[in-house]
Amino acid sequence: MKPLLWLVEDEPSIADTLIYTLESEGFQVRWFDRGEPALLALPQGAPALAILDVGLPDINGFELCRRLLAQAADLPIVFLTARSDEVDRLIGLEIGADDYVAKPFSPREVSARVRTILRRLHKQQRLQQPTLYQFGAFTLDEEGAAISYHQQPLPLTRYEFLLLKTLLLAPGRVFSRQQLMDSVWAHAEESLDRTVDTHIKTLRAKLRAIDAGEPPIHTHRGLGYSVSRQP
C-alpha cells in the first residue's frame, strides 16, 4: 500500500506541483488548503507524514503542528517555509517537526526528504525489541516508545523520548550537545544545538511534575548533559 501523505498548503500552484511529484514517486497525497480541515480529519486516521506550510491563512503552521502532535504524537512533520531565519527553524524543531524545506524548493528534494524520514522511522520500528529497562526511578519501554518515572508515565514528545532514552542507556556518560544532535536529530539538516537545551528544560519540568525533587538530568557546563547512574 502506498504511504498516505497530507499536504497542507494554500497555494494551488505549489500544491499541484508537489502532488504530481509525490504521487509519481509512489505516495498517496491528500491536500488541504487550510489547517482547520486537517485537524478535523485527524480523528478518522493519521497519515504516514504531514507536510505543512508555515504561512497558512487560517492558522499558523507552527500552531497547527502543535495541535496535530497533541493528538498524534508520533506523526512525522515536514515544514514548508519561506522563512530562513534561525529562530523560525529552531521553533519548528523544538515543537517536534522532523525537517523543514525553505521556499523556493525542488519538489524532488521534498520527496527525497519525506522518503528519508519514513525509511528511518520504518527501520527504527523493525529494530525495536519488546524489552523493558529499569534505571532507578525510570522504566524504559522501547517497544512502546514510553518512559515511566516513579511508575508514572511521562507525556513525552517523540524527540523528548529519544533524548531521554539516549541519556538513560548510558547513565553517567556526559553527552555533548553535538553528540545528542547527531543521535536524536541526525536526519534534520542544519539542526541547531539550542534545541537540545530547550528539550532538556521541558524534560526537567515534566519530571518535577511527578517528583518535586531535583531531576536526575545534570548539566555539565561547557561539556553537555548526563543522567545519574542511579536516578
UniProtKB/TrEMBL annotation:
For whether the record's keyword set contains Nucleus, the answer is no
Query: What InterPro entries does this protein map onto?
Result: CheY-like_superfamily, OmpR/PhoB-type_DNA-bd, Sig_transdc_resp-reg_C-effctor, Sig_transdc_resp-reg_receiver, WalR-like, WH-like_DNA-bd_sf
Which Pfam families does this entry report, sorted A to Z?
Answer: Response_reg, Trans_reg_C
> Where does it sit, as one GO cellular component term?
protein-DNA complex
Q: Which SUPFAM superfamilies would you find in this protein's record?
A: C-terminal effector domain of the bipartite response regulators, CheY-like
Query: Main subcellular localization, coarse class?
Result: cytoplasm
Domain Response regulatory, chain residue ranges per copy: 4-118
Q: Report the locations given in the UniProt record.
A: Cytoplasm
Would you say which domain of life the source belongs to?
A: Bacteria
- 4-aspartylphosphate modification sites are 53
Which keywords are on file for this protein?
Cytoplasm, DNA-binding, Phosphoprotein, Transcription, Transcription regulation, Two-component regulatory system
Q: One biological process GO term for this chain?
A: positive regulation of DNA-templated transcription
Q: What is this protein called?
A: Two-component system response regulator CreB
Organism of origin is Serratia oryzae
